[in-house]
Specification:
The chain has 451 residues and is mainly β. The chain has six domains: 89 residues, Immunoglobulin-like (Sandwich); 66 residues, Immunoglobulin-like, CATH 2.60.40.4130; 61 residues, Immunoglobulin-like, CATH 2.60.40; 65 residues, Carboxypeptidase-like, regulatory domain (Immunoglobulin-like, Sandwich), CATH 2.60.40; 79 residues, Immunoglobulin-like, CATH 2.60.40; 45 residues. The chain has one helix and 41 strands.
């Protein structure tokens, strides 16, 4: 019912109320009341007897009595309120207006689609929404495997409405073939199984991860289109292997399939799966060869013990001070041992097996040098018979004016024994000797010494 269809009560009081609002009271002392009206929301039209008399908040002075006021506001239901004002009373009226609303039923194909309004899920289709106020409204319809869809409707009055929505699939097909077979498939951080793999999947971007033991991971982003197949073929790259090589002794040069590398200890990375021949070489040692097989991401450690292919010689060269040569190259001088006339052992090492020439020499020796052949065996130390060199060790001056280079054999108060040359021993009485001058090993002959 609208304000234009006033009831009979409005007509009865119309004349009196109009006269009051016009200020036509015949008696200034007539009883008077005050009526104040507020509404929620404000700015509602206030009507009396079908005529607009103001908007809320509204205040008027009138005679005591009973009045019926009407209220109108766009998008809200009309309302009537009865007010009774006593003589001298200030009457306050609060009016709550009810907003016009409608009911909306949402149906979808397929059914059981989730309905979201303002990001909040409120149910599934088919469903009815009550209290839909005047104006435009919208919702989002979602269902796994379907294209998300926005719907809207406009409420103009209280009449109910039906909203129908057709959703379309958003699924495509992903197919993954991988080498090696049985590689593990992960899509969007969710394990999916092993290759070969096939599954329906929502359209849009997805991240796939393909991995297998011993192989490098493969990761990529793909875009799935609805109602289409996406085929992925991937051959995983082998994860290279690592080979650690040690040798005893260290410092051996390593050859991998005849390709030279650095010396031990050594770690070689980025090796593809397969068989490898490892050869270790070091001077003074026999070459050593090993076979090793590496799988994908394989790790192997090899310890090679090298056998020496060298021998040695322990030389004794008497007396001290004799220069020693090995195969024509000077290697040292014999040193004084426990006794002054005897030499220490002179060690010669890292000699290849076979014959070697040992030469000893001294400037006062007779003969001046001597050479012997020594046979060296692999891994053994040869100890030839001590080499004795005849070396004059003194100058003998006789009273008759002779000066001799000799090797002293014996000397006492009565006589002196000496060798002027190897294998010849002579004797002189002490009375015949003017002086005996010992020579140091490194000294040469005196200029006045005669054979």
């Amino acid at each position: 019912m609208t304000m234009k269809n006033n009831n009979l009560i409005f007509a009865i009081f119309a004349g009196a109320l109009i006269a009051i609002f016009a200020g036509c009271s015949e008696k200034k002392s007539a009883p008077q009341s005050e009526i104040s009206i507020t509404s929620l929301p404000e700015q509602a039209k206030v009507l009396y007897n079908g005529k607009e008399i103001g908007v809320t908040p509204f205040k008027t002075k009138t005679k005591p009595g009973s009045y019926i006021f009407g209220f109108e506001k766009k998008n809200f239901k009309d309302r009537f309120v009865k007010a009774i004002a006593a003589d001298g009373e200030s009457k306050n009226i609060e009016v709550q207006l009810e907003e016009i609303s409608s009911s909306i039923m949402i149906e979808s194909s397929p059914a059981e689609v989730f309905v979201e309004i303002d990001g909040r899920q409120i149910g599934q289709t088919p469903m009815t929404l009550h209290g839909q106020t005047i104006g435009q409204h919208k919702a989002t319809l979602k269902k796994p495997g379907m294209v998300q869809q926005e719907v809207s409707w406009t409420v103009e009055d209280a009449r109910p409405q039906l909203v129908k929505v057709n959703l379309f699939t958003n699924m495509g097909v992903i197919k993954i073939n991988a080498s090696p077979a049985n590689a593990q498939i992960t899509i969007d951080d969710k394990p999916k199984g092993k290759a070969p793999f096939s599954e329906n999947i929502e359209q849009g971007e997805h991240t796939i991860l393909i991995e297998a033991s011993g192989y490098k991971k493969h990761e990529q982003t793909i875009v799935i289109e609805r109602s289409k197949d996406c085929v992925i073929n991937v051959a995983l790259n082998v994860q290279p292997g690592t080979l650690s090589i040690n040798s005893t002794p260290p410092g051996a040069t390593i050859f991998v399939n005849d390709a030279q590398n650095e010396t031990t200890p050594l770690t070689i990375t980025d090796l593809q799966p397969g068989k490898y021949t490892i050869r270790a070489e070091k001077n003074g040692y026999d070459n050593s060869t090993r076979e090793v097989e590496l799988g994908p991401d394989g790790k192997a450690e090899i310890n090679i013990i090298l056998d020496t292919n060298m021998g040695g010689i322990d030389l004794v060269v008497n007396p001290p001070g004799v220069t020693i040569y090995l195969d024509g190259k000077q290697i040292g001088v014999s040193q004084v041992g426990e006794e002054e006339t005897l030499s220490k052992i002179f060690p010669v090492r890292n000699l290849k097996n076979g014959a070697h020439a040992i030469k000893v020499s001294h400037k006062r020796a007779i003969p001046s040098d001597r050479t012997i052949d020594v046979s060296v065996e692999k891994g053994k130390i040869s100890r030839p018979t001590p080499i004795n060199v005849w070396i004059a060790d003194a100058v003998l001056k006789l009273k008759n004016g002779k000066v001799l280079k000799v090797k002293l054999m014996q000397k006492n108060e009565k006589e002196i024994l000496f060798q002027p040359e190897p294998g010849v021993t002579l004797k002189h009485e002490i009375e015949e000797v003017e002086a005996v001058v010992p020579l140091k090993p490194e000294e040469d002959w005196p200029e006045n010494a005669t054979p």
